[in-house]
Amino acid sequence: MANGWRVVNQRQYEELTSAGTFVSTVEVTFELNGSGTVASVKIPQRLYSEEYVRAEIDRVASTMAAVENL
Length: 70
Known about the structure:
Blueprint: E1 5-16, E2 22-32, E3 38-44, H1 50-68
Antiparallel strand pairs: 1-2, 2-3
C-alpha cells in the first residue's frame, strides 16, 4: 500500500517502558492519500529502517483504509 500513504513527520524520543527503563523510539506520522486521515506508528530505534517502517505503516494503513470503506 506504499502508494496509498505518505510520511508527514518523524520525531525521536525516549519512551519509558513498563520495566522502568527508557528506550529510544521514533514516532513516524503518516497520512492516507485520498482521505487525509493521519495516524502514527512507534518504532524502536534499534528497528528503525526504511524497510521496517514501510512494513509497519503498510500494516496499519491497510487496516485503516479497510475500516474507512465500511
